[in-house]
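Let's practice the habit of predicting before peeking. Look at the sequence and jot down your guess about where helices and strands might fall. Then scroll down.
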Amino acid sequence: MQRVNKLLSLIVLVLMGTELTQVLPANPEESWQVYSSAQDSEGRCVCTVVAPQQTMCSRDARTKQLRQLLEKVQNMTQSIQVLDQRTQRDLQYVVKMEDQLRGLETKFRQVEENHKQNIAKQYKAIKAKMAELRPLIPVLEEYKADARLVQQFKEEVQNLTSSLSLLQQEMGAYDYDDLHSRVVSLEERLRACMQKLACGKLTGISDAITIKTSGSRFGSWMTDPLAPEGDTRVWYMDGYHNNRFVREYKSMADFMMSDNFTSHRLPHPWSGTGQVVYNGSIYFNKFQSNMIIKFDFKTSTISKSQRLDNAGYSNTYHYAWGGHSDIDLMVDEGGLWAVYATNQNAGNIVISKLHPLTLHIIQSWTTNHPRRSAGESFMICGTLYVTNGYSGGTKVYYAYHTNSSTYEYIDIVLQNKYSHISMLDYNPRDRALYAWNNGHQVLYNVTLFHVIRSEQL
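Done guessing? Here is the structure:
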């Protein structure tokens, strides 16, 4: 029994067996045969069996047990061989499948790359098509906008038609002539109301309104405050010296929209930018003198000339910007004025009211304001308003009241839109300031504090 146990302990089964091979006994004295094969040619493990020689007594019980055991081992070996064959076959399938998978993987990669290339080609084609179609987009947008605009026009026409129909029903007996007469009557009443307004004090100046851009940096432009109704001619003078041509435009609209004008040649060149057109004549300072000249446009002749005694000229007492601006002529609700400076008043501003026909001085006022430190000045209702400069931030800061011979400091902003004001005059008919601002013709509306006369409107 001990030898059987020893035999059993020597049987080793490992992965995958092969046919048994006879080798010499390890110890011949024990009369044992050894059937063994440690590894096959591919390095796989096999079974090892130790059994007694066949010459031993076959009827020995131990020999019978060993024979049975050997048969079992042989059966196991056959089973292992079958398993090995199946495994080898399956392994071949696996290898073949692995090759097929690798081939499929390569094909998939190729398909993917081809797909990307195809997508890229398709994308380029689509992009090229979009490039062709893109110019059509604004056209379509304009079409849509035009369609909306047409629809708006249709709606507005329908609304206007309805409104006119209602208006026609409401107006009934009123015809055009009747309506026109009522409008004229209303306009006359408004004019009468405006005439009732007494002179006012300047309290505000609007933002600049650019009428036109033309000419050099310096010049003057104006309308006639005493022109008859319907006469809206504009007068234009480019430069501040060595020029004697005045342009006449038929209307403000003509001045703004065209360059059609009539040219008038003065008998002398003017000095500065302080000219004024008043009741059909132009008043200007003759160049390099203190002579005031009145020139009649209808007759193209000098109707009057007069020296302004003691007035400085030729850049002696000019405005801060220079430009031979020693004598500034201006008009307000009270008539014609001259603003200048004299040695007798130490270069400070002198205000003189002039007779428009004879040019004689009616009355003068001396101020304490140095003329060279003034940017520009203008008259409104007998009050001289002076600006603090001509460039950058500008404001009206000094006012001299001729009716009371007093002055005060004020603070009214004047928008200096183009940074160089070389002419600033008030027109009492328009109640607006005319300015020449660095080659731009500009208007400012003014706000006056009015006092209503006691008479009934």
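How did you do? The radius of gyration is 59 Å.
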